[in-house]
Amino acid sequence: MTQQWHILGAGAIGSLWACHLVDAGFPVKLILHTQEKLDIFKQKNSILLADRAYPMTAELADATDTIDQLLITTKTVDTNAAFNSIQARINPGARLMVLQNGMGSQQWVQAQRPDTNVTWASTTDGAWLKAPFHLHHAGQGITHIGSPQQQCLPWITPLKNGFLTLEEDSDIRLTLWRKLAINCAINPLTALHRCKNGALINNPDYLSTMAAICREVELVAQASHIELFDGPLIEQACHVAEITAENYSSMLQDVQKGRQTEIDSITGYLCETAKSAGIPVPINLMLLNKIKQIQTT
Ligand code: PAF
């Protein structure tokens, strides 16, 4: 197997990981989705982060080299199309790491290619692109990496030599569920009311809706054999809303910019799981429909 990592989805988190992997000594190739983007990239053949240029290469999805190690950092709404565009290039036995918000894509990728080794990852790093291929690392976080199938992932050790903080996670499904639960509680409500996260705890109406969302999420988690937190979810959600009181959630930012949100892989995943388990989740369904409506208007 080559050392090369391909990265599908060169947004902020994909670019951050590209720099991290270069720092850790791996050759990195970005898979870009337009010729225009590739032309811009080729002016520098690197990503700029904190005044340092991280050299790497880039190509389009229709390139012919095969893929042994792939990091998938597309937005969840773009995953299926992006993955399908490179499927044929992925070697059997390849290592695929899905680093995304929400849930559903991880299982989908696994189902597409059962002949590969798929790991799941979740990060609290914050980053944004100042300009194409010019990155700002706004907040140092932790990336949890794990596999629901394999306990031991020795290949992660060399990945730890770059500048990001990585942790092997023996219960990555729980980690992703926890993030999903908090996102279900905060993101759709802030996007609907176009408010900062802090408004959810200062407005009694918003707070009681958030509490109702949390009760539904807890029931679905329980049915999925997930023990979310030691205390009630609403306490965790209020805590996160408090410490991020001045933030606009990622879903609100998408709505404000007229972009597709990640509602399907957050509240949508929750509602699908609830349906399979026969659990009514009327508040989450209402929010799912409202955010979908906002997206199409
Ligand atoms: O998606 C987000 O914006 C964040 O995960 C969170 C926790 C809701 C804070 O803004």
UniProtKB/TrEMBL annotation:
Organism phylogeny: Bacteria, Pseudomonadati, Pseudomonadota, Gammaproteobacteria, Oceanospirillales
Protein name: 2-dehydropantoate 2-reductase
Organism the protein comes from: Neptuniibacter pectenicola
The Ketopantoate reductase C-terminal domain, residue ranges: 171-295
Catalysis performed (reactions): (R)-pantoate + NADP(+) = 2-dehydropantoate + NADPH + H(+)
Pathway: Cofactor biosynthesis; (R)-pantothenate biosynthesis; (R)-pantoate from 3-methyl-2-oxobutanoate: step 2/2
Free-text function comment from the UniProt entry: Catalyzes the NADPH-dependent reduction of ketopantoate into pantoic acid.
Domain Ketopantoate reductase N-terminal: 5-148
NCBIfam families: apbA_panE
